Amino acid sequence: MAITRLEIDVKRLLSVCEEMAQNNSSDDWRLSKYIEAVSEMITELIKKSDPDKDAINQYTKRMEFLKGFLNTKDIENPEKKLVALEMLEPVQESNSRSKDIKQKYKVTYTKQLRDELFGSDTNEFRSSRQPDVDSSDNLDELLRHHQNKQESIAEELIAITRGLREHSELAGKIIKKDIEILEKSSKGMDANFENLKREEQRLSEFVRKSTWRCWIWVLAVAMVAIFIKMILFIKVTKKS
């Protein structure tokens, strides 16, 4: 299948958007406009032509990844940024940079989180540190604090995963129930069709038999009429 001009433009604009995202461009508003434009172009591509469905799915996944990535940059809390980034699924395609983008910003957001934690914890320890407290105690306390933060993030991820799994199971049950209802309806329709077919055959047989009976009665009446006419004819002939 030949690639149209519109599809070529979609591929080029997606590459430009991924390059801007990977290079940490400060023009987020421009990247947002480009993503909106590529979304409209993909919609137009689906309407105006008949492209490969796999290619359309890849374009859509790349565009959705860029949207999700741009949303993570608007989050102020580094922890939530990192969680939101982990939820994004890179596109498994050779010419897509989504995997590199996720890896790069995972390092960036992790560094921001570490800087925030170390910076705030260091200030807290400096303000509350007593002369008789050893620096190793501060370090142990800081490490425990980081461990608690990591456990909190892990719990949030587990809760999100559990929620997604529950929603998926619920959706699966609803779909299964709908399929069962459709199967029952289909069986009922088949049974009704068979009943109608049998009734049609019975009606056809009845009509056929009724037709023959009508012809028998007509012949009988005709024979009686002929017989009466013959008797009348004989009587008239004798008188003459």
UniProtKB/TrEMBL annotation:
Pfam families hit by this protein: Use1
InterPro entries with a match to the protein in the record: Vesicle_transport_protein_Use1
One GO cellular component, as annotated: SNARE complex
Family: Belongs to the USE1 family.
CDD domains: SNARE_USE1 (cd15860)
Top-level taxonomy: Eukaryota, Metazoa, Ecdysozoa, Arthropoda, Hexapoda
Annotated organism of origin: Aphis craccivora (Cowpea aphid)
Topology in the lipid bilayer: Single-pass type IV membrane protein
Name the UniProt record assigns to this protein: Vesicle transport protein USE1
UniProt cross-references to PANTHER family, sorted A to Z: USE1-LIKE PROTEIN (PTHR13050), VESICLE TRANSPORT PROTEIN USE1 (PTHR13050:SF7)
